[in-house]
Inverse folding.
C-alpha cells in the first residue's frame, strides 16, 4: 500500500460506514462481557436477520461506553441512544421498538431506573454532557477488531500526514506545541521526552508503550486497549517515526487478557495493510511492534523495571541517570510513554497542537480519562478536560454517593497517591493542584469513599500493597514498608501509643526521601495524606498514657 | 526443594513439552525471552514444575539462580499447582471498600483455605488478585477464568459449588 492507497482506503471506509443507516453496538469490554454481552450480540444478530433488517441495521461489538455497572450496554448510532442492562430477551424488544415501531423503549433506556426523565439521546445526559472526549472519542463507537472501522474515523490519517507531510522535527514540534504531558502519572512533557530521545544518535532506538496498569482501582488503559487499540498503535507509529526508532514494544499487564487479544488483532491487521513492517507505505520508514505480557509485578510500571522485564529479567528498577532516553532497552535510547499518552497523538497531528493546547488548564493541556469506582452511584470510565472540579466529576457525572451516605474522601493515584477530603471537593483537577493537596494525578483511578470507610485501615491497605510489591532491591523500601505496615496494623488494632505514631511519621519521611524508585518514594503518600486530612482518626486509636 | 542443576529428561511426546520446545526455538534460544517462555510453560501446565524449569534453564544456557529468581519475582508464576478449580477474589481498592474481605472470610469458613492455599485433594485453590480492573463490578470474583460480578458474601459458597459441579 502506498500513500494514495491509504487515502483511498480511508475514503472508502468512510463511505461504507455512511451507507449503513444504523449501527448498533454491544459493549464487549471486560465488564459488560462479565454480564454476558457476547450472548446479547449473538441474539441481536439473529433478530436482525429474522426481521430482515440487514440492509439498514448493522450490529457489531464495541469497546467500553463508560457505565460499567449498568451493563450490558447497547448503543444505537446515529441516534446515540443507549439501552442498559440488556439481556438476550430484551434485545428483541429493542430491535422491534427502535427500528420497526420507531419508538425508543423508555423502560430500557440508560438510567431508566434512576432518573425520572432518561434521555433518548445519551449525549444530553449529564453523565456524558459534562465530558469532553478525545482519547475515548471513538471508544464505544467503533468495532475495535476492525481496522477499517477505525479508518472510517480518520484512523491512520494522522500517521499518513506525519509520514508524508512532516519531518521528524516538525512532528516533535507539534507535540511540544500541544503541551501534552505524560498520562502515566508523573506528567513529564511528552514533546520534550521525544526530543531528548530524538537527539541521541544511535542506529537502534526503541519505542515502548507502558500498559502495565497496576494501580488498584484503575482501568483506563485496559479500556482504551480494549476499545480502540489502533489509536495506541498509531501513536506508537508516529512516535517511532519522530524519534527514529524501528522497533516498538507494547507491554501489557498479564491480567488484561482481552486487551492483549485485541492488541494482537490490531497488530495483525496493521501488518496486513502494510502499516507495520519494512518501508511502510513506500517510504524509508520501517517499524514493527511486538507485545510483551506482564507477569504480575506492580513495580514493572516503573520504566527501568519495565525495561528489565522486557529483557526477560526480574523487574528491579535501576537508579537514574542514565535515563532510558539515553540508555534504555538493551542499552539503546528508548522512549517510554503510557497507553493514554499515545492515544492522544494521532489527533494532535491531525488537528494541530494548538487545538489540543486550548483544552484544559494553563499548565495541564488536554483531557484526562478517569476510572470512577468505589462508593459512587455510576462507576465507570469518564474523560474530562483538565481543570474540571472533583465535585463535578463525583456528583454531576458520577451521580454522588449511594444510599444517601456522606462523601468522605477520594483516593487518587492509587497506592502512590493520596486522598482528597470533602473540604477540597472544589479542587480543579490537574497535575499541580493534586500535588499541592498531598496527592498525585496518578494514572487516573478515582476510588470514592463514604463516611463508613475507615481511613487508617485504607492507609494500612495501601501499605500492605506496597510492602508486597516492593522488589526488595533497596533497603528503605524493603524494610521501611514492612515497618510502616506493622505500625499501621498496631494502630488499627488499638494497640499503639503516641511513640508509635511519631515513629511512623518519621519513617514515612525517611522512606519517601531515600528509596531508589517511585514505588518506595511514593509508598508513604497514602499514609501521609490520611495523617494530614484525618489525623483525628489516628489520634482516637492511640492508647493515652497517663 | 530439589536443585535445578541436573539435566532433566522430559517426555518428548508430551504435547506440553512440544509446545515449550517450539516456543524456545521460535525465540531463538535467547535468554531475553525467558519470561515469554515461562508464560508458555505456565499456560501449558497450569504451574511451573521443577523439571520443566530445569529444561528451560538448560535450553537457554542460563544459571539456575537467574531462572528461579525470575520465577519467584512475578506473581503470575507458580511453583505449585493452583488446583483443578480456582476461585480468585479481587482485593483491589474498589473491591476492598465493597467487601472483598467478607467474601474471603466466607471461603475460609467453608473450605478452611486462605489465599494462596489449595485443598488437600487439589480440587480447589483460593487466590487473591491486586485488582483485575473490573472495578465497575466490585466486588468481583473470578471462578475458573469467568468473572462473577457484584458477588455477595452470602452467595459465594453456592455459586462456587455450582461452578465446581458443572464442569
Amino acid at each position: 500500500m502506498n500513500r494514495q492507497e491509504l487515502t483511498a482506503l480511508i475514503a472508502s471506509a468512510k463511505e461504507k460506514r455512511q451507507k449503513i443507516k444504523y449501527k448498533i453496538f454491544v459493549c464487549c469490554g471486560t465488564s459488560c462481557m462479565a454480564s454476558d454481552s457476547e450472548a446479547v450480540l449473538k441474539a441481536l444478530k439473529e433478530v436482525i436477520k429474522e426481521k430482515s433488517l440487514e440492509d439498514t441495521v448493522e450490529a457489531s461489538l464495541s469497546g467500553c461506553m463508560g457505565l460499567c455497572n449498568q451493563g450490558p450496554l447497547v448503543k444505537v448510532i446515529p441516534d446515540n441512544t443507549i439501552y442498559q442492562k440488556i439481556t438476550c430477551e430484551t434485545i428483541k424488544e429493542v430491535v422491534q421498538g427502535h427500528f420497526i415501531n420507531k419508538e425508543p423503549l423508555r423502560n430500557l433506556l440508560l438510567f431508566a431506573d434512576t432518573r425520572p426523565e432518561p434521555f433518548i439521546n445519551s449525549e444530553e445526559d449529564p453523565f456524558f454532557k459534562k465530558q469532553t472526549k478525545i482519547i475515548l472519542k471513538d471508544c464505544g463507537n467503533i468495532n475495535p477488531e476492525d481496522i477499517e472501522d477505525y479508518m472510517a474515523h480518520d484512523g491512520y490519517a494522522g500517521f499518513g500526514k506525519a509520514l508524508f507531510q512532516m519531518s521528524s522535527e516538525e512532528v516533535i514540534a507539534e507535540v511540544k506545541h500541544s503541551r501534552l504531558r505524560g498520562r502515566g502519572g508523573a506528567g513529564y512533557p511528552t514533546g520534550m521526552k521525544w526530543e531528548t530521545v530524538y537527539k541521541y544518535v544511535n542506529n537502534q532506538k526503541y519505542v515502548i508503550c507502558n500498559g502495565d496498569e497496576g494501580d488498584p482501582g484503575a482501568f483506563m488503559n485496559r479500556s482504551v486497549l480494549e476499545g480502540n487499540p489502533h489509536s495506541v498503535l498509531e501513536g506508537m507509529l508516529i512516535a517511532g517515526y519522530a524519534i527514529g526508532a524501528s522497533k516498538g514494544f507494547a507491554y501489557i499487564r498479564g491480567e488484561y487478557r482481552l486487551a492483549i487479544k485485541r492488541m494482537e488483532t490490531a497488530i495483525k491487521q496493521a501488518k496486513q495493510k502494510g502499516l507495520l513492517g519494512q518501508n511502510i507505505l513506500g517510504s524509508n520508514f520501517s517499524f514493527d511492534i511486538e507485545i510483551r505480557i506482564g507477569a504480575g509485578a506492580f513495580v514493572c510500571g516503573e520504566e527501568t523495571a519495565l525495561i528489565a522485564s522486557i529483557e526477560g529479567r526480574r523487574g528491579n528498577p535501576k537508579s537514574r541517570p542514565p535515563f532510558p532516553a539515553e540508555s534504555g532497552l538493551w542499552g539503546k535510547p528508548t522512549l517510554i510513554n503510557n497507553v493514554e499518552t499515545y492515544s492522544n497523538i494521532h489527533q494532535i497531528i491531525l488537528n494541530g497542537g494548538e487545538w489540543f493546547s486550548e483544552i484544559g488548564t494553563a499548565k495541564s493541556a488536554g483531557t484526562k480519562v478517569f476510572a470512577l469506582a468505589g462508593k459512587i452511584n455510576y462507576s465507570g470510565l469518564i474523560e474530562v478536560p483538565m481543570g474540571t472540579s472533583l465535585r463535578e466529576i463525583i456528583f454531576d457525572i458520577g451521580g454522588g454517593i449511594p444510599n444517601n451516605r456522606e462523601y468522605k474522601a477520594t483516593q487518587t493515584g492509587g497506592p502512590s497517591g493520596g486522598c482528597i477530603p470533602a473540604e477540597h471537593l472544589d479542587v480543579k483537577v490537574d497535575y499541580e493542584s493534586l500535588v499541592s493537596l498531598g496527592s498525585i494525578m496518578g494514572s487516573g483511578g478515582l476510588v470514592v469513599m463514604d463516611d463508613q470507610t475507615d481511613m487508617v485501615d485504607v492507609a494500612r491497605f495501601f501499605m500492605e500493597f506496597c510492602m508486597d510489591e516492593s522488589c526488595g532491591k533497596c533497603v528503605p523500601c524493603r524494610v521501611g514498608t514492612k515497618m510502616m505496615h506493622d505500625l499501621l496494623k498496631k494502630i488499627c488494632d488499638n494497640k499503639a501509643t503516641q511513640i508509635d505514631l511519631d515513629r511512623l511519621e518519621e519513617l514515612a519521611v525517611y522512606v519517601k526521601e531515600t528509596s531508589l524508585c517511585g514505588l518506595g518514594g511514593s509508598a508513604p503518600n497514602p499514609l501521609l495524606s490520611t495523617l494530614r486530612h484525618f489525623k483525628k482518626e489516628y489520634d482516637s486509636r492511640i492508647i493515652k498514657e497517663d | 526443594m530439589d536443585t535445578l542443576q541436573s539435566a532433566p529428561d522430559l517426555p518428548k511426546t508430551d504435547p506440553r513439552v512440544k509446545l515449550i520446545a517450539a516456543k524456545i526455538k521460535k525465540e531463538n534460544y535467547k535468554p531475553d525471552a525467558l519470561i515469554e517462555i515461562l508464560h508458555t510453560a505456565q499456560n501449558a501446565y497450569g504451574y511451573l514444575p521443577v523439571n520443566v524449569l530445569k529444561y528451560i534453564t538448560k535450553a537457554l544456557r542460563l544459571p539456575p539462580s537467574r531462572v528461579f529468581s525470575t520465577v519467584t519475582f512475578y506473581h503470575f508464576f507458580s511453583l505449585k499447582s493452583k488446583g483443578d478449580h480456582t476461585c480468585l477474589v479481587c482485593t483491589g481498592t474498589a473491591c476492598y471498600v465493597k467487601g472483598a474481605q467478607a467474601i474471603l472470610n466466607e471461603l475460609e469458613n467453608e473450605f478452611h483455605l486462605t489465599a494462596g492455599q489449595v485443598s488437600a485433594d487439589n480440587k480447589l485453590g483460593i487466590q487473591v488478585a491486586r485488582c483485575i480492573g473490573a472495578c465497575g463490578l466490585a466486588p468481583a470474583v473470578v471462578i475458573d477464568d469467568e468473572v462473577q460480578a457484584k458477588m455477595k458474601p452470602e452467595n459465594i459458597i453456592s455459586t462456587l459449588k455450582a461452578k465446581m459441579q458443572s464442569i
